[in-house]
Design brief:
Layout lengths: L1 E6 L7 H6 L4 H6 L3 E6 L3 H6 L6 H18 L8 E5 L9 H9 L3 E6 L14 H4 L5 H8 L2 E4 L2 H7 L6 E3 L23 E5 L12 H9 L5 E6 L11 E5 L5 H5 L4 E4 L13 H8 L4 E3 L5 H4 L6 E3 L3 H13 L1 H18 L2 H9 L4
Parallel strand pairs: 1-2, 1-3, 3-4, 4-5, 5-6, 7-8, 7-10, 8-9, 10-11, 11-12
Helix pairs in contact: 9-13, 11-14
Length: 357
């Protein structure tokens, strides 16, 4: 089978692509399939996409993406399946998807891992963002041969349009990438960690008061944030910031003893695929999460982490883990086991490959 992957970003750059399908490419090759990846954005446009300014270059980059998409249509007939991640183009109606499915008659496998049929509350309000066409998601689901959804909440939406919608979770490569485990017995100051992009920093508002209270009581810890920009919060003396870098991603995360994933409970957040928690847990550390979206499927209370809905619950969980090194080690081991057994590339291999049967 010859497979075309139509994706928003250049290969190896965006987490959603890296952890949803790019890490399965070798398995496709082993099965005798061939594939081609066609990103909308060029490497140069991706490099400036989230930087301020560069307006003309960004507009030209978007226009260049549309030119590449138009040219791609002439090559689509040679492929047996077309895998579309999120959308063929970031703005406008689903013209390319309609042409591929209805005019060229190709079987589309449609994949998404966020509630992209609605606006992200933390999304940047730009001219380009105003041209997004969220309502196209339902149409693409309807035209697809199969729909690959990151969690049950997303699948429930897709089932309105396509009965052939399956859960294909975001997974981690526990053999080649997330293949190290945090040594909880190292005698060092406990590090509470959080990682994410600037659009998810808003969720930290749920835990700032708790962290400040524990710090004022004399608890000795560091709260380390890994992101593409620092949080705007000056009330926590123990706060440190580490810029996210792909080259040191795993090494930086291994600096945590436990990881936080607070989520504001809104329709957008319910579509999240617990990726932060998966990363923490894969590296042998307990995850403290809000009971939103997929989080409660991944974390089992008191087993591999804690589910925290109120300030009192966040506070109680943090007190336990900060004070008990052995508890961190025990829960970290169970967290690692959970990922290997349920959310690893190896455990999900056959489920992913079945998309192309």
């Amino acid at each position: 089978m010859h497979i075309l992957f139509i994706v928003p970003y250049p290969p190896g750059k965006a987490p959603s692509q890296r952890f949803r399908f790019e890490q399965y490419f070798d398995f496709l090759t082993e099965k005798g399939h061939t594939y081609h990846v066609a990103p909308f954005l060029s490497d140069s446009t991706w490099a400036i996409l989230y930087k301020p300014g560069h307006t003309l270059a960004k507009v030209l980059g978007i226009l260049g993406g549309f030119v590449r998409r138009a040219a791609l249509l002439f090559t689509v007939p040679r492929y047996d399946r077309v895998f579309i991640h999120r959308e063929a183009a970031p703005i406008g109606p689903p013209i390319f998807e309609w042409l591929i499915a209805k005019v060229l008659g190709k079987k589309i496998i449609y994949d998404f891992d966020d509630a992209i049929w609605m606006k992200d509350p933390a999304g940047e309000q730009t001219f380009i963002s105003s041209l997004k066409w969220q309502q196209k998601v339902g149409s693409i689901c309807r035209w697809a041969y199969k729909v690959s959804c990151g969690n049950a909440y997303l699948r429930e939406y897709a089932l309105q349009f396509n009965p052939n919608s399956i859960i294909n979770p975001t997974t981690l490569d526990t053999e080649h990438l997330h293949n190290q485990v945090r040594d909880q017995h190292q005698t060092s100051r406990p590090v509470i960690g959080w990682t994410g992009t600037h659009t998810t920093l808003r969720h930290l508002d749920l835990v700032w008061p708790v962290l400040e209270k524990l710090e004022n009581e004399g608890y000795d810890f560091e709260f380390r944030v890994i992101s593409n920009q620092p949080p705007e919060h000056a009330g926590l003396r123990s706060l440190t910031f580490t810029p996210w870098r792909k080259a040191t991603e795993i090494e930086d995360l291994l600096g945590f003893h436990l990881g936080l994933m607070p989520l504001v409970d809104d329709p957008w957040a319910r579509g999240k695929c617990a990726f932060k928690a998966l990363q923490y847990m894969s590296l042998g550390m307990p995850a403290l999460v809000s009971p939103v979206g997929m989080n409660t499927e991944v974390v089992q209370e008191g087993h591999n982490g804690y589910i925290c809905d109120t300030d009192a619950e966040w506070e109680a969980a943090l007190r336990k883990l900060l004070a008990d090194q052995e508890l961190r080690a025990k829960q970290g081991a169970m967290a690692r086991r959970t990922i290997v057994e349920r959310y690893s590339v190896v455990s999900n291999k056959e489920n992913f490959l079945a998309l192309f049967q």
